[in-house]
């Protein structure tokens, strides 16, 4: 039987979707992590502490993308900034990990996402760079789903 070497996923190969709609131009994602509170307790006359998983902590996900004429992210940010009674503007974000062949090998699903901050790179007439948009999104919960 031949040795099978694992296919490593490169950091520059991923997809980014909000509620199932792929967002093009995203070239950097930071802060993908989930923290669980750990509680200590002693039951009865035990001589050692036991650990128990507690609540998930929300975290901030930062995405950087080349600005384009699409405005789905801006509409979402505007709606969340001016909430209306009875409406929920939380979204689900999916970050797909892609191998060299283009197949998705796993997906991080982020639930209860709300835009928190939106900023742009400096606009300068003496540079030939793309305008970049940085959005900070607060995430309530993250799960990994293998392909």
Map the helices and strands.
Blueprint: E1 14-18, E2 21-22, E3 26-30, E4 35-41, E5 50-57, E6 59-66, H1 72-81, E7 91-98, E8 104-120, E9 132-139, E10 141-146
Antiparallel strand pairs: 1-2, 1-7, 3-6, 4-5, 6-9, 7-8, 8-9, 8-10
Low-confidence spans:
none
Class of secondary structure makeup = mainly beta
Domain module tally: 1
Query: What is the CATH architecture assignment?
Result: Roll
Rg on CA atoms, Å: 20 Å
Helix-strand sequence: EEEEEEHEEEE
Describe the structure.
Strand 7 and strand 8 (104-120) form a beta hairpin. The protein has one domain (14-39, 48-146): Pnp Oxidase, Chain A. The model has no long low-confidence stretch (mean pLDDT 87). The chain is globular. It starts with 13 loop residues before the first strand and ends with a strand. Helix content is 7%, strand content 50%. With 147 residues, it is mainly beta. Strands 1, 2, 3, 6, 7, 8, 9 and 10 form an eight-stranded antiparallel beta sheet that branches. The chain has a two-stranded antiparallel ribbon with strand order 4-5. The protein has one helix at 72-81, and strands spanning 14-18, 21-22, 26-30, 35-41, 50-57, 59-66, 91-98, 104-120, 132-139, 141-146. It has one helix and ten strands. The longest helix has 10 residues, at 72-81.
């Amino acid at each position: 039987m031949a040795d099978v070497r694992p296919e490593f996923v490169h950091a520059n190969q991923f997809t980014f979707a909000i509620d199932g709609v792929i967002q093009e131009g995203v070239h950097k994602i930071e802060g993908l992590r989930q923290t669980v509170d750990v509680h200590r307790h002693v039951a009865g006359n035990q001589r050692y502490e036991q650990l128990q998983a507690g609540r998930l902590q929300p975290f901030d996900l930062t995405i950087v993308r080349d600005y384009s004429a699409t405005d789905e992210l801006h509409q979402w940010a505007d709606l969340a900034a001016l909430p209306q009674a009875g409406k929920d503007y939380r979204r689900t974000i999916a970050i797909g990990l892609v191998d060299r062949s283009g197949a998705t090998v796993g997906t991080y699903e982020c639930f209860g996402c709300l835009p928190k901050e939106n900023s742009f790179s400096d606009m300068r007439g003496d540079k030939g760079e793309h305008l970049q948009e940085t959005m900070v999104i607060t995430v309530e919960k993250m799960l990994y789903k293998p392909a």
